[in-house]
Amino acid sequence: MIAAALGTDPVRIAQAVGAAVAGPAAESVDQDARFPAEAFAALRDERMLGAMVPQELGGRGATFGEIAAVCQELGRHCSSTAMVYAMHQIQVGCLIRHGRTAPFLRDYLTELTAKELLLASATTEQGVGGDVRTSICAIDQQGSRFRLIKQAPVISYGEHADGILATARRSPDAAGNDQVLALLTRRDFKLTETSGWDSLGMRGTMSLGYTLTADAPIEQVLPTPYGEMSSQTMLPFSHILWSSLWLGIATDAVNRGRGFVRSEARKKPGTVPPSALRLAEVVARLQTMRAVVQGGIADFERNMDDVEVLSGLGFALRMNNLKITSSTAAADVVRDTLGVIGLFGYKNDSKYSVGRHLRDAHSAALMIANDRIYSANASMLLIHKDD
Predict the structure, then answer these.
(1) 20 to 30 Å CA-CA from 382: which of 88, 262, 326, 336?
(2) Phi, psi at residue 82, to the nearest 5°?
(3) Euclidean distance between CA atoms 200 and 210, whole angstroms
């Protein structure tokens, strides 16, 4: 095990797993659009899926900042591995922060750490126009159990997940935005594929569409309304962890640009290659992106237990702007790095290739579309007073 040599630091473990396992398999994962099974086998061996779970429940008790750094490190080697890991930790975060007081959910967190279970998410639904804060499907309670049928256009890595957290209306007669989040274990749900995943990038996430059918105990519905979970946990976890892995993608691309420029400089000692100027510009933009992401992490960690701040418009605007800024910067940095490297960055069989990075980075603006976020910001700014 890697931890035997590196200790229990999750960031160092992620660096090692990325370099030794996820990175070497990244091209195959991308080409075959397959789940990064070897990377997750290694992460399970190192007890990294339950890393954020508190120690009293068997986890590492890793901080949120450490999990963000893990996503960044994995993103430097395999974008799909990093995205799956981030999406898993978003679900774990919801259980830790909003389900730990419920006996079943607390026991499930212990089971998750013991068995290194992988969680997926079913928050999108056909017919709501991409609005995750509205549901058509509903919790249909029948005695001590409930049934749920959800038409989900995307459930990333659903076939490989040990559990799914799904949003739904509280009851069949509830309003569309009166939502809850339900934990569905592997024994509770069935997935029927409705669409495939032949995508431009992030191919290893296997984000297929499904009809999700579930029959589960009512105690598996989280007690906190989803609207509260969304603002206090889902929103910041998603935008920060996604931004962290996008930073990892951009960082690795720029590192390839550095390597190329240095190789050019060695050909003519004592001269500065023309591409060095472009590299300096790209590095400056990367450093700006890193500062923005680190600022978002610090903002959340500073306020993570302050419900009033987390539920406020000011915090939502800052998190939304983090997502917009980092998703745009990631694609821009990689694209401009391609300009630094030139043909060798364009060729897929070059060690300086950034083609996969560019394709993966372009997914960032589509994950909760930036236009939708700008629209939400515009509405909030009509009533929000400047901090």
Answers:
(1) 326
(2) -65, -40
(3) 20
